[in-house]
Amino acid sequence: MQNKTLYLILLIIGTAFWGISFTFVKVSIGQGSPYVFLFYKFLTAGVILVLVFYKHLKQITLKTLKIGVLISVPLLAGTILQTIGLKSTSVSNSAFITGFDVLLIPVLKFLVYRKKVAAKVWLACATALAGLYLIAVQDSLSLNIGDLWTIAGAFGFAFYVLQVGRFSTEENPIPAVLVLMFFCAAGCFVLALTDTSSVWMPAESDFWTGILFAGIPATAYMYAVQNIGQRYIAEEKIALTYLCEPIFATLAGFLILNETITGRTAVGGLLIISGMFLAEINFKKQIKE
What we know:
Elements: H1 3-29, H2 34-52, H3 62-86, H4 91-98, H5 101-111, H6 119-136, H7 145-166, H8 174-193, H9 205-229, H10 235-242, H11 245-257, H12 263-280, H13 283-288
C-alpha cells in the first residue's frame, strides 16, 4: 500500500475520533472554563506522544522549536475559538461552520502563498461542502455569537493546515508535533489562570472522560498522523478528509444515542465521499484511456 493511501485511511479514522469528540467536548466544558479543558487535553496528548516517541526528544533543536511554534499558534487559536463557540452553539452548527476550512484552505493557499490549486479540487471542495451542509443543517442555519467564534476558529484551522504543509518536507515531523502539544498546553494554562470560572480539579466524571477521549485518539493520534501524512497529501486534500467528521458523528449518534439517520444525511454523506473521489481522479489519464 502506498504511503499516500495509508495516511489517507489513517486520517479518515482520525476524523471519526474528531466527530465523536464534539459531543464529549460540549458535555465536558459545561459552564466551566474551556481553557482548563484544553490545557488538560493538550497536556494528555503531549504526555502520550512523549511516551510513544521518547527517542525523538533528542532531535528537538532550535529549528524544531521554531517550526513547532509556527504551527502551534494557528492551531491554538483555532481550537480555543472553536471550543468557546461550542459553549453557545449546537454541535451540528459547529461541525458545519468548522467545515468551511475546506474552502478556506485552497483560497488562502492561492491568495497568501500564491500556489496554484487544481480546478478539480475546487469542484471536489464545493461538492463535499454541499454534502456537509445537508448533514449538519437539518432545518436552518442561524448565526449566533457561538457561530461567529467558530467562523474565526475555522480560519485558525485553515492556517494551521497550511503551516504544516509549509514545513512538511522536514525529515522528521514528530519532534515538532511534541513541541506543538506542549506549546498549546502552556498557552491554555496561561489563559486558564486569567479565567475566573477555572476549576482545576472538576468532580464530574464526564469532564475526565472527555479529556481522555479528546486528548488521546482525537488529538495525540490525529495530529501525529496528519503532520506525517502531509508529506504525501496536499493541504486541500487533507481538508477534504476532515469533512468525513460529521458522517462519523451522525453514525455515533445512531449507534449510541439511537438518533435517526435521515435521507438528507445519507445524500450528504454520499456527496462528501464523492468529493473525496473527485479530488483523487486523474481526469487526463481517464480521458486518454
